[in-house]
Specification:
Blueprint (H helix, E strand, L loop, with lengths): L1 H13 L13 E7 L2 E10 L7 H21 L9 E6 L8 E8 L13 E5 L2 E7 L5 H12 L8 H6 L2 E7 L4 H9 L5 E4 L4 E4 L6 E8 L2
Antiparallel strand pairs: 1-6, 2-4, 2-5, 3-4, 6-10, 7-10, 8-9
Helix pairs in contact: 1-2
């Protein structure tokens, strides 16, 4: 269920990039420890069918992105991270709405001051299996990581991989996968809310960059 949102968050994050990734870089896969991170989280109730509808997924994500960005601007916070799905809670029956919790990275100690329902949490340190995609097509790169998770040394089933919390983001092309993954997963400098134009602006990554996909290990 979480992974169905993963591709959508990836598309949103990549759509505004302006610089080209380093060409010819092969996919690099490995386990990485990601330090703890302060986040702002917003829970939204929605019909269960929306989880499998890309158009409605996009609509919900855009709405949450705007709400968190506006709250950040009202708190005089210049930028926040791209929201992603942290948790999906099913209803009592298959016909009941589900509750989806979206979280966005912020800098340390920041707390929302409005009445928007946004809560500050401290996400603990996590361990992920990450891939640095370079110039590889996003879907192909994601499939390579999925295939790797289903093989040695992880040996997860397809359903187990689909249920993992997944994050994607762009970052500068630095030397190690560890540095790239930490920078992408804990990025708190992606979105700005411009009050004058009433728009949410996605900040580009300039220069050589790479796309990171990270699946959180259970």
């Amino acid at each position: 269920m979480i992974k169905s949102w993963f591709a959508v968050t990836g598309i949103v994050g990549l759509a505004f990039a302006t610089a080209l990734p380093a060409m010819g870089q092969a996919a690099t896969i490995g386990e990485v420890d990601i330090p703890s991170q302060r986040q702002w989280c917003l829970a939204r109730s929605m019909p269960a069918a929306d989880l499998n509808d890309p158009v409605k997924q996009q609509r919900h994500l855009t709405s949450v992105m705007r709400a968190i960005a506006i709250e950040a601007a009202n708190t005089s916070k210049p930028s926040i991270g791209m929201p992603g799905v942290a948790k999906v809670m099913a209803g009592a029956t298959a016909d009941d709405p589900v509750t989806v919790t979206f979280c966005s990275n912020v800098t340390a100690a920041e707390v929302p001051i409005g009445i928007s329902g946004i809560q500050a949490i401290d996400r603990g340190a996590i361990r992920v299996v990450a891939v640095s995609c370079g110039a590889i097509d996003f879907d192909k790169c994601d499939q390579q990581l999925t295939d790797a998770l289903m093989a040695d040394p992880w040996n997860f089933t397809e359903d187990e991989v689909a249920a993992m919390s997944a994050t994607t983001g762009e970052t500068a092309l630095v030397d190690s996968l560890d540095d790239q993954a930490v920078a992408a997963v804990n990025n708190a400098d992606v979105l700005l809310y411009d009050k004058a134009s009433d728009t949410v602006i996605t900040l580009p990554v300039f220069g050589d960059r790479t796309t990171i996909i990270a699946y959180q290990l259970p």
